[in-house]
Amino acid sequence: MQVACPHCGAPETALTESRFYRCDYCGSSYVLQGEQGIRQYVCSHRRDDRLAWSALADHLERNRVESSPEKGGVEFLLIPFWCFTLESGVTRMIPAIPPLVPEVATVTLPGVDLQFPLSGEEVAPPEIPLAHAEQGVAGAITRRFLVHLPLYLLSYTSQGAPFQALVSGMDRKVYAGTLPPGIMIVIPRGHLLMVGLYILVLVMEALAIRPPEWRGVAFLLTALAAWPLGYAILRREC
Amino acid sequence: MAREPDLRVIPLICPDCGARLPAEEGSVIFPCGECALLWEPREEALVRRELRLLAGEGSVHVSFWLFPFRVTTAGGEVTTLGEYRRLTGNSNRLEPERQGMPPLLFIPAVAGMPPHLLLRAGRLLTLRSPVLTSRRGFPSRLMAIGRGERDAALMAQTILLATLGPERLRNLSFLRSVKVTVGEGGLCAIPFLERGERLLHGEWSLEI
Amino acid sequence: MAAAEFGGIGCPQCGGPLNFREGSLTTLCGACRTALAVTGSAGITRYYLEETLDLAGARSAARRFLATAGVDDAVASRLRFQGGELCFLPFWRLRGIAVGWRWLERETVIEEEYLDEQGMTRRREQKGLPEQQSEILALPVEYSSPACDLSPYGLAGIATVSSVLALKGVSFERLARRGIVFDPTKEAEQIRREAMGLLRERSLPKETVRHEERLELSGEQLALIYYPVWKLGFLRDERLYPVMVDAVNGRLLKGRFPGRATVRLASPLATVTLLLFAFSLQVTAGIVLTALFLGWLASRGEVSSAGIARHFFLLVVPGKEVEHG
After folding, report:
1. Confidence of residue B11 (pLDDT cuts 50, 70, 90)
2. Which C residues, 242 through 261, put their C-beta within 8 Å of a C-beta on chain B?
């Protein structure tokens, strides 16, 4: 079957077993849907999990939820999306593979440098046909293309309950369905331990020293010693 | 790379004589004083444009696009100058030989003219539909041409409507029905006298 | 700047660098004095603004901001910048003249005189019949809008800057070597629609009840202007904070900086020591002192489980973050 490059119109013989094509003339990359060539793009992005966790921390803070969730796993995904530019100029995105989490369906196209994948660059083929995705789009479509977007799927725990969030690698946008319930205060475990240890020392002193005046002196000395020690430890957190 | 095309620049050098063409602010069509020709950039080349020089008194020439036109309204079709004059309510006598001529729309081509003045100049000249007398030659002082044929044609309907009486325009179904079709446009240079910041055409009693 | 680093298009006659002005379809080569006409594919001209700050300059601009924006010195001195990318962000600019007609119907108010119960003449305003009118319009159009989602960069518009500074013509191959060139995802058609929609809305008189118009855009000049922004980031306790710096004037466009945390140890230590001492003397004394302590907390409006936990266990109070843009 003969197909034409959607970028420059150069003809190519399509092999039915292959689904990605690279134009020998203009270097563009496209996928075949029926007899139609659809341009496909990737976004240049280097994986950095810290970026995703930082974006999530920002998002949780802004929503007045705890800022230091217990980190779970990170899954780095390069998800293909069918993009449809409508007559109104708006671009709608529909996942081209069955979404792993419902949040994938809410992803919007970030400001991005769209590039054709380099030869040898591995990208997942679309599993949902273009025609099927198109049915979910209302309005006249003027342009169709496929974009492989880098996304981080983060799993975290807050107050013992598991949560998931999707972070777009390009613009650090967070797509989180359910957020942990808002909490008023976060007490770091270290602080709990320090105060607990201090109470334990005082209790032991109280049991060991009977005369009240000597006990008072011992308490005072312990407090005076604990203050600079604790300060030195805690200052590192500032 | 998935790239859009780059910006393109075309050297403004007369394809006929090799002289450098002047590029005044806002120009889209460029005169070559050496060979008395106009050049317009199209795609990646310069193409020639004809200029009709009108006779008259004046030191500076202002360019206008002239479009023969026909207009369809709820009241019928207007194809001649006589019919157009009736549409505008102009009862002045018109020479019999001009009655059947196609009417002409005058659309200013000059660069940097504020929109309201542009509308005014186009309306006044179109309404007057003066007798045009050409002469040979090329204007020594031609004000920069800042409007191409396509852009001028886009203004045709508005300028035509501006020449009609306000009573007609108040009628919404009339406004909806007006359809102006223009023929091929031609550039003409009209001489004007300079009076401070104003330009005067003595013979047509016109000030722009 | 060295010729090899020049990212724009050069003069086809002599190869010299060219400067452009937004809205002008001609330019003059500074080197060989040849006048040049500017054209773009599908009527769209593509320009970029050259960055005046390099990476080091952008970092010092961000540091200067820290000094004036209320970020604690101790926090600022410990921030470590990580990487830095120069991004060219696309903006649409549309100019032209909107011409056409508008027909409208507007409310009218008529004043009438009447006699009240005491027989006095009074005046009152009443709604009159709607007035129909039409106008021929010729309005200048000037519109600017980001060409893709640029919300993470804190740059809303470039109208003033792009009309003042000299622009360079885009050669994508060369520009991509200088930085990341973002692609416009908003179509030209949408820009036209937005610009005309805004114009219709703004030019419509207030009292309009009904209106209809036909407007065409004549003399359209559609340009894509790429604006340089440094995307910096700094790391603090495994947390990355992005900072966007305008690469033309060094302005901080968007950034979020941690505030300085403070240690509060004296108050929890003193309370624990006193309460335990009181209880060790006599349970009643302990209970009285606890009641007094709760009373003190109540006077500060903090008598709750969270308030008590905060008093005893929150030994480091996080500082208020400084957010910009």
Report:
1. very high
2. none
Both tokens of C133, joined, read: 């009118």
Is B96 found in the same domain as B186?
yes
Alpha-carbon distance of A62 to A59, in angstroms, equals: 5
Domain assignment present for residue C315? The answer is: yes
Please report which confidence band the pLDDT of residue A221 belongs to, taking 50, 70 and 90 as the band edges.
Answer: very high
Count the neighbouring beta carbons within 10 Å of the beta carbon of residue A108. 15
Task: Say if residue B45 is in the same domain as residue B55.
Answer: no
B43, B80: one domain: no
**Class of residue A213 by CB neighbours under 10 A (exposed 0-12, middle 13-18, buried 19+):** exposed
- C233 contact residues in A (CB cutoff 8 A): 51
Same structural domain for residues C18 and C163? yes
Residues C36 and C159 in one domain: yes
Domain-located, residue B83: yes
| Three-class DSSP category at C220 | strand
Query: ipTM of the predicted structure?
Result: 0.89
Q: What is the pLDDT of residue B161?
A: 94
The pLDDT-based confidence of B68 (bands split at 50, 70, 90) is very high
CB contact under 8 A, B20 and C24: no
- C305: domain range? 262-324
Give the A:C interface size as CB pairs under 8 Å: 133
Structural domain includes residue B3: no
Is B1 touching A (CB cutoff 8 A)? yes
Say yes or no to pLDDT of C100 above 70.
yes
**Is residue C311 domain-shared with residue C241, that is, in the same domain?**
no
Task: Give the best residue of C155, C240, C274 to mutate against chain A (max A CB count within 10 A).
Answer: C240
pLDDT tens digits, B99-146: 889 999 999 999 988 999 899 999 999 988 888 888 888 888 899 999
Tell me, yes or no, whether C149 and C170 share the same domain.
yes
For chain C, list the contacting chains (3+ Cβ pairs, <8 Å). Answer: A, B
What distance in Å separates the CA atoms of residue A114 and residue A83, rounded to the nearest whole number?
Answer: 12
DSSP H or E segment with residue A227: helix A212-235
Contact C36 B9 (CB under 8 A): yes
Nearest to B118 among C40, C137, C138 (CB): C138
CB environment A151-186: b (16+ within 10 A), e (fewer):
bbbbebebeeeebbbbbbbbbbbbbbeeebeeeeee
Average pLDDT over residues C102-113: 86
C251 and C276, same domain (yes or no): no
Structural domain contains residue C69? yes
Residue owning tokens 């359209």: C220
User: Could you tell me the residue range of the domain that residue B85 belongs to?
Assistant: 50-207
Residues C238 and C311 in one domain: no
C180 and C38 together in one domain:
yes
Average pLDDT of the segment spanning C261-269 = 87
B170 vs C contacts (CB less than 8 Å): 103, 132-134
Give the range with max mean pLDDT: A15-24, A189-198, C309-318. Answer: A189-198
Domain boundaries, chain A: 2-175, 189-235
8 A C-beta contact, residue A169 and residue A49? no
Q: Are residues C15 and C161 in the same domain?
A: yes
- Residue in this structure with the two tokens 């292959």, named with its chain if needed: A18
Mean pLDDT of C293-298: 90
Total structural domains within chain C: 2
Nearest CA in chain C to B161: C136
Q: Residue C19's closest chain B neighbor by CA?
A: B9
Quick one: B96 and B146 in the same domain? yes
Please indicate if any CB of chain B lies within 8 Å of the CB of C195: no
Count of domains forming chain B: 2
Q: What is the pLDDT of residues A43-52, one digit of tens each?
A: 888 888 988 9
